[in-house]
Structure formats: structure tokens, C-alpha cells
Design goal:
This protein is α/β, with parallel strands linked by helices. The protein has a domain at 1-29 and 52-66. It is built from seven helices and nine strands; from the N terminus they run E-E-E-H-E-E-H-H-H-E-H-E-H-E-E-H. The relative contact order is 0.19. The structure holds adenosine-5'-triphosphate (ATP). Adenosine-5'-triphosphate binds next to helix 1. One of its GO terms (molecular function) is ATP binding. Residues 5-232 form the ABC transporter domain. It comes from Ancylomarina longa.
Length: 246
């Protein structure tokens, strides 16, 4: 399968404090990679490097498209001024900004595409509302539409389950399974049980990155990867790890 993006020996530090060391990672078409790891392990930093928001201290990033224009990114915390007078439809359309000439107008096709997506994600009825009127969960659906309106080759989601309401969580993963037929997905989550039942491969990030070419992982492997997280499972999970009884 074609490689979309490759990180080679990437290192990153904030103020001389090393956060990522010698990270190697290949993202191929139709990958569905789950990134797990302890708090402060460097997951968000890694995503920001992949998106191009942070430049690595050393190492190489090789993108098939030559740049990061075909990446859709749903950050962990969306900093948006809720008082800013902008409609839901315009927020979704703003995902196309970098693909347009400066001051270019949105075409009818752009609008139809945005509306079709909003209908798929269940927010079409909100299209003329001001973003300040939305709940957190509704706002996140809007941002998901904005991230995919460009038909990205790679969609990146940073802990979507921390802000998505429970009703939408199951639906979100169904949508992601569908989207994965057209694009690669990287998702960071602390809800290990839920992501394990959807992702195809797993990376444990705790300063270094350990790649696991399957969605079945055991506590022993996590220990070997130096990735101290609890395996919490619920629902239909392909592999369960139970703590020993004392
Ligand atoms: N802008 C910044 N300046 C300085 N240090 C930072 C900055 N952003 C993150 N860090 C530090 O870098 C380390 C990695 O942070 P990062 O947010 O990438 O981890 P994470 O694995 O995403 O954590 P979490 O699971 O808590 O979201 C942490 O020790 C964090 O405190």
C-alpha cells in the first residue's frame, strides 16, 4: 500500500526538554492508527509535528503529497471565540480556506458539499445558527465536518472522546469506519477499549514510539513498550486483559 507520510528519526524538545526521541512512523493509505500513551507522553506533540504545526528539532518528514495540504485535523481543544459572529455553515466552509485563492468566494458546489456532510453528521438543521449557540458536542461535530470538507487523505483526531457527547460517541466511530474507506485516520484516545475495537494498528507514545502492527495488545507488550497505561475494556473488544486476582 502507498505510504502517505513518513517520519524518520524525529526528535522534539520544548525548552531543551526532550519530549520525542528518535520517532519513526509510516502512515499508509487506509491506515487506522490508534495512538495511546500516558499523560504528557508526547502524543499531541507528535500530531502537531505530523500536521506541520511544529517543526522537529531533527529528523525528516516525508509527505507523499509534498506538503500537509491533504490533512484534516481535529485538535484536542478548539480555541474558538464563541462570540465571533459566524454561522455553522461558514465554519464548515472555512475548512476550504487554504484551498482557495485569497478572498475567493465559495462556489455552489462548495456549499452543497458542506451541506451534504453536515447532513451526514446530523447537524444540517444547525447550519444557519451562530456557533455561539451550540453545545460542546454540537460544536465538535461542526469541527469534524470542517476537518473532512476538503476530502483529506489523512484525518487526525486528538482525543475526540473527551468532548463528544455520549450519544455521538458510537456514531462517531461508525462515521470514522466509513471515512476510513477513503482516507487514513490517526486517533489519540485514552479510551483504550473503544479505540482497540476500531483501529487496525496501535502506536504507544511515551517519549519514544513503539509501533504495534495489530489492534490486539496485551499488558505485557505495553510493559515491554514502556507504555504505562491501564487496559480498560468494554463492549466487543477482541482481546481482554484481566488483572490477576490476589
Ligand atoms: N507548549 C509547550 N511548552 C512547553 N512544554 C510543553 C508544551 N506543550 C507540551 N509540553 C510538555 O511536553 C510534554 C508532552 O506533552 P503532550 O501534550 O504532547 O503530551 P500528551 O501525550 O498529548 O499528553 P495528554 O495525554 O495529557 O494530552 C508534557 O510534559 C508537556 O507538559
Amino acid at each position: 500500500m502507498n505510504t502517505l507520510l513518513e517520519l524518520k528519526s524525529v526528535n522534539y524538545a520544548y525548552d531543551h526538554k526532550i519530549v520525542l526521541r528518535d520517532v519513526n512512523l509510516k502512515i499508509r493509505e487506509n491506515d487506522f492508527l490508534g495512538i495511546i500513551g500516558p499523560n504528557g507522553g508526547g502524543k499531541t506533540t507528535l500530531l502537531k509535528i505530523v500536521v506541520g504545526l511544529l517543526k522537529p528539532m531533527s529528523g525528516e518528514i516525508i509527505a507523499r503529497d509534498g506538503d500537509n495540504s491533504r490533512i484534516g485535523y481535529l485538535p484536542q481543544i478548539n480555541q474558538i471565540d464563541k462570540k465571533f459572529p459566524i454561522s455553522v455553515l461558514d465554519v464548515v466552509l472555512s475548512g476550504l480556506m487554504s484551498h482557495k485563492k485569497l478572498f475567493g468566494r465559495y462556489t455552489l458546489q462548495n456549499r452543497e458539499k458542506a451541506e451534504a456532510l453536515m447532513s451526514r453528521i446530523g447537524i444540517e438543521h444547525l447550519k444557519n445558527k451562530n456557533i455561539g449557540e451550540l453545545s460542546g458536542g454540537q460544536l465538535q461535530r461542526v469541527f469534524l465536518c470542517r476537518a473532512i470538507v476538503t476530502d483529506p487523505h489523512l484525518l487526525i483526531l486528538d482525543e475526540p472522546d473527551t468532548y463528544v457527547d455520549q450519544n455521538f460517541e458510537g456514531e462517531l466511530y461508525e462515521i470514522l469506519d466509513q471515512l476510513n474507506k477513503q482516507m487514513a485516520i490517526i486517533i489519540v484516545s485514552h479510551d483504550v477499549g473503544t479505540i482497540f475495537s476500531h483501529v487496525k494498528t496501535i502506536a504507544c507514545v511515551n517519549k519514544t514510539l513503539c509501533y504495534h502492527d495489530s489492534n490486539i495488545i496485551s499488558s505485557e507488550q505495553l510493559k515491554a513498550y514502556n507504555c504505562p497505561i491501564d487496559l480498560i475494556t468494554h463492549g466487543e473488544v477482541p482481546h481482554r486483559v484481566l488483572k490477576h486476582h490476589h
